[in-house]
Design brief:
The chain has 20 helices and 26 strands. It has 634 residues and is of the alpha+beta class. The strands form 5 sheets. Strands 1, 2, 3, 4, 5, 8, 9, 10, 11 and 12 form a 10-stranded antiparallel sheet that branches. Strands 13, 14, 15, 16, 17, 18, 19, 21, 24 and 25 form a 10-stranded mixed sheet that branches.
C-alpha cells in the first residue's frame, strides 16, 4: 500500500518548495519558516514503483524544480538507494545517475536549495524518511497515491496517458500526469501533442480537469482556436488585447531554468514548436510608466521594420494606459494587462505568458525582447531595414541572435520640460558613454531576438529553451554565441558576449537621458523588480546617483551615433502618424501634465527629506542639476 513521508536532509531540515523560485530546498524549522516563503513537500511511495518516491506539495499542488537538473513539475519522481543504515537513503534522478544533494542552510535565512547533479554519495547526499502523522494524510494525498499507482502499474505510454485524460481520472489531482514527464521520450511527447491538437474534445476534457493550469485551461485552447482561424482566413491580425491574470504567478516562476512546469506545459510547447510564422519581426516588452517615450519608441521601430508590438503593463500611474488603449484599438499593438501580486515581479510573468500562452506571437518570425529605453540600431550603409539584416543572418541556421548594446550619454534639457515634451529622445542624445566607464560586465551584456516557437521563457538578456530541445544562438555578426569567457568575477551566462561586436547592428540604451529624467526614472518601479506602487525614493542613494554622475563630463564620452540620424525622416513620419491617431494629442497632454505634477512632488520630497545630505560631496551636484536646493538651515 502507499505510504507518505517527510524527507529530512542530512542537516535535519525538511525538504520544501521555495515559492518565489519554485525550487526544491531544505529549511531549518522554527523562526525561519516565517521569513522564507516555502510550501511543505511530501514523498509518496507506491507498490507499482517500489524503488521510487514521488515528491508533491503537501497541502496543494506547487511547482517543484530540482536545481542543476532537468527535473521539474508539480510532481517529481525520484529513485532511491539505501546507504549505510537502512534509515539513510540517497535520491537519484529517475532515469539518469545523478544524486540529490542538500546544501547546508545558513543564517539568516535558514534555507538552502537541493541540487540534482552529484555523481557520488557523501554526507549531504544522504536523507531519511519520516512518516507523516495520520492526521497529515489528506484525502487528496491518498487519491493521488492511488492514481499514481494505477498509472505506473499500466506503464507510461502514449495510450495510457491519453486514456487517463479521457477517463477524467485527473479531477482533484491535476499534477498527476507530471509524474510521467521524466519517463516520456520527446518523440512520444510530440505524438501526444499532435493527437491532442487533432482532438478538440480531448483538449476540452483536459482543460476541465486542470482549471488552475494556465497551459491546459488557456494555452492549448487559445492555440487551437488561433490555428483554426489562421487556416480558415489566411493571415490574420493579432489580437488587440489579452489579460494575464494576477493569480497566474506560476508563469513567472517556471521556464527560467529550462524547466517544464506541467504535462500541459510540455504539450503546448510541443504544439507551438510546429507553427510556421507568416510575418516578420515583432517586439515583446514590459512598459511601465513609459508614457513620455512610448510613441517615439514605437514609431522608430516601425520605421526600421518592426511589424508588431506585444506590450505588457501593470499599475501604470502616468496615464500611459490611455496610449496603450488607443494603439491597441487602432490595430498597432497587442496590449496585455499584467496585474501583479504584491512583492512579485512583472517581467518574467509577462514573458512566460507571451511565450507559452499567447498564440499570436507565433506568427512572427523573430521577436526582440526590449525595454522602453532600448532602441535597435542598424548600420544604414549595410541594411535598409531590420528585415534585410535578418535575411542576411538567416543564410545559416540560427534560433536566436544576441546583440551588444551601447549606453547613450545624458544631455541637459535646455528648456526643461518643454524640451522633453517637444524633442524626441533619440534626437536629443547622440553621444556614447565610454565602455570603461560602464565597466566590462555592463558593456558586454546583450539583448536577444529569437524565434518565439523555439523558447518557453526569456530572461531580460537572453531566451530560454526547454531542456528537451537545443537552440543555435549567434552574435550579431553571425558567429556562435558560446559565452565561454565571461567578465572577471561573473559566472558564465548567455547574458554576456565573449567580446563586444557593434559593427552591423546593436542596441542603443538610453539609460541616462537627462538629470531631470534620471530623477523621474529613479522614483518609479521597473519591470524586473517586485511590484510597488506610489512614489519610491529608495533609489536616491549615493551609489545610484553616482552612476549618473560617472558619465556626465565630456571626457567620459566616446563616439557619436551615425546610424539613427540617416533614418530620421522615416521615423518622424511614423511619429506624426501616431500623434494624429484619434484622441492621441489629448492623451499626450494628460501624460505631460502628470509628468509635471509628479516631478514637482519628487522635488518637494527630496528637499523635505534632505536626501542630498545623504550623498557624497561630488554627487550632491546632481541635486543642483535637478533644481533641488539645500534644505534651509541644513
Amino acid at each position: 500500500m502507499a505510504a507518505f513521508y517527510k524527507i529530512i536532509t542530512f542537516h535535519n531540515a525538511p525538504i520544501v518548495s521555495e515559492e518565489n523560485h519554485g525550487e526544491l530546498g531544505n529549511l531549518i524549522p522554527g523562526e525561519h519558516e516565517r521569513t522564507v516563503l516555502c510550501s511543505p513537500v511530501v514523498a509518496i511511495t507506491i507498490p507499482s514503483m517500489p524503488s521510487h518516491v514521488f515528491l508533491v506539495g503537501a497541502t496543494h499542488p506547487v511547482p517543484l524544480r530540482v536545481p542543476l537538473s532537468d527535473l521539474s513539475g508539480h510532481i517529481v519522481p525520484l529513485r532511491f538507494e539505501h546507504h549505510s543504515e537502512q534509515s539513510q537513503l540517497a535520491f537519484l534522478h529517475p532515469v539518469l545517475d545523478q544524486y540529490l544533494s542538500a546544501i547546508i542552510p545558513e543564517e539568516p535565512s535558514g534555507y538552502a536549495r537541493i541540487e540534482g547533479n552529484r555523481r557520488s554519495v557523501a554526507g549531504w547526499e544522504l536523507f531519511r524518511l519520516e512518516p507523516l502523522a495520520a492526521n497529515e494524510i489528506t484525502q487528496r494525498l491518498e487519491l493521488l497515491a492511488e492514481r499514481l499507482d494505477h498509472l505506473f502499474a499500466r506503464g507510461i505510454t502514449v495510450n495510457t496517458l491519453l486514456e487517463t485524460i479521457r477517463a477524467e481520472a485527473i479531477f482533484g489531482t491535476p499534477e498527476l500526469l507530471d509524474a510521467a514527464l521524466p519517463f516520456l521520450s520527446t518523440l512520444n511527447l510530440e505524438k501526444i501533442a499532435t493527437l491532442l491538437q487533432q482532438d478538440k474534445a480531448l483538449c476540452e476534457t483536459l482543460a476541465r480537469q486542470m482549471p488552475e493550469d494556465p497551459w491546459a485551461a488557456e494555452g492549448i485552447p487559445l492555440l487551437m482556436h488561433w490555428i483554426s482561424q489562421r487556416d480558415t482566413h489566411g493571415k490574420i491580425t493579432p489580437a488587440s488585447r489579452y489579460e494575464c491574470p494576477q493569480n497566474q504567478t506560476v508563469l513567472g516562476v517556471t521556464g527560467l531554468h529550462k524547466d517544464i512546469a506541467s504535462f500541459a506545459h510540455a504539450c503546448v510547447h510541443a504544439m507551438r514548436r510546429k507553427v510556421t510564422p507568416t510575418r516578420g519581426p515583432a517586439i515583446l516588452a514590459c512598459v511601465r510608466n513609459e508614457g513620455i517615450y512610448l510613441l517615439e519608441w514605437i514609431a522608430y521601430h516601425r520605421a526600421i521594420g518592426i511589424e508588431w508590438f506585444f506590450l505588457y503593463s501593470n499599475d501604470n500611474d502616468d496615464q500611459s494606459d490611455d496610449i496603450l488603449r488607443t494603439l491597441s484599438e487602432q490595430g498597432i499593438i497587442t496590449w496585455v494587462n499584467n496585474p501583479i501580486k504584491p512583492g512579485k515581479a512583472a517581467q518574467h510573468k509577462a514573458y512566460g505568458h507571451a511565450l507559452s500562452i499567447v498564440p499570436d506571437i507565433l506568427d512572427f518570425s523573430w521577436v526582440q525582447v526590449l525595454d522602453g529605453d532600448e532602441f535597435i540600431a542598424l548600420d544604414p550603409q549595410r541594411f535598409s531595414n531590420l528585415q534585410d539584416y535578418l535575411l542576411w543572418t538567416e543564410t545559416h541556421p540560427v534560433d536566436a541572435i544576441s546583440l551588444n548594446w551601447r549606453f547613450v550619454a545624458s544631455e541637459p534639457l535646455p528648456e526643461g520640460e518643454e524640451t522633453l515634451f517637444r524633442d524626441p529622445l533619440t534626437m536629443r542624445n547622440s553621444r556614447f558613454v565610454r565602455h570603461d566607464v560602464i565597466g566590462d560586465p555592463g558593456s558586454r551584456l546583450v539583448k536577444s531576438m529569437f524565434r518565439p516557437a523555439q523558447v518557453i521563457q526569456s530572461q531580460a538578456h537572453y531566451p530560454v529553451a526547454s531542456y528537451r530541445y537545443s537552440t543555435t544562438i549567434c552574435l550579431s555578426d553571425g558567429t556562435p554565441h558560446t559565452w565561454q569567457s565571461p567578465p572577471a568575477g561573473v559566472p558564465s551566462s548567455a547574458a554576456f558576449a565573449d567580446h563586444i561586436i557593434f559593427e552591423k547592428i546593436g542596441i542603443y540604451h538610453y539609460f541616462y537621458k537627462s538629470p531631470e529624467e534620471w530623477m523621474w526614472k529613479s522614483s518609479r518601479n521597473r519591470g524586473d523588480n517586485p511590484s510597488k506602487q506610489g512614489l519610491d525614493l529608495r533609489n536616491f542613494v549615493d551609489g545610484w546617483t553616482g552612476n549618473f554622475m560617472s558619465q556626465i563630463s565630456d571626457d567620459m564620452r566616446s563616439g557619436e551615433d551615425q546610424w539613427m540620424a540617416p533614418r530620421r525622416a522615416a521615423f518622424l513620419s511614423e511619429l506624426e502618424k501616431l500623434k494624429n491617431l484619434p484622441g492621441m494629442m489629448q492623451v499626450l497632454q494628460n501624460i505631460y501634465m502628470t509628468y509635471r505634477e509628479r516631478s514637482a512632488l519628487i522635488r518637494n520630497r527630496l528637499q523635505a527629506e534632505n536626501i542630498r545630505e545623504r550623498h557624497s560631496e561630488n554627487n550632491r551636484i546632481f541635486f543642483d542639476l535637478i533644481n533641488v536646493p539645500e534644505q534651509p538651515n541644513s
